[in-house]
């Protein structure tokens, strides 16, 4: 792990534990095992570090999700895409805080980014769902807009379950993801063996590429006061 990665990993852990506003650059430096000055060689200040962490976490999430989907024989199906993306997001506490707009973690960063900026998108666009339907993976009688909205609602519920029902065991969480995926497959997907699964994988890969391109230009460095 290089110096930048050590800084980002330390920052992510401290931000989740104590919140962005209560975490100082000194504390990040100690957790990363480097000097405070070394952090300023990589980032102009804490705001710039937060920007870089958001970009890093989103890119890593999309890459990991894409790899999981590609490795899954049935990964191009909507239910499998949902399962892999949600499971990967739940592994990333800082990204989860972004998605749920957790004020305890992000604090004033929510005001910096506004209501939508830098929030990870689990909601799959209508055009993406339409590609799956064109590939024969979604039933032709199902409304694409409804499916896209359904994915957003279900995904938001899974990500916020911890704040509503307390901590959930990994086993129970996995079983819940499987059950939701099964229900999704039964209601909106074509039967197993139908459709072009590889086309579904390509559709997600294209979507991930678009999101990564947006991330690169979506958050900019900001000068700030080091704390």
TrEMBL record:
InterPro entries: Homeodomain-like_sf (IPR009057), HTH-type_TetR-like_transc_reg (IPR050109), HTH_TetR (IPR001647), Tet_transcr_reg_TetR-rel_C_sf (IPR036271). The keyword Transcription regulation applies. Residues 24-43 bind DNA. The keyword DNA-binding applies. Signal peptide: none annotated. Residues 1-61 form the HTH tetR-type domain. Pfam families: TetR_N. One of its GO terms (molecular function) is DNA-binding transcription factor activity. It comes from the Bacteria. This is AcrR family transcriptional regulator.
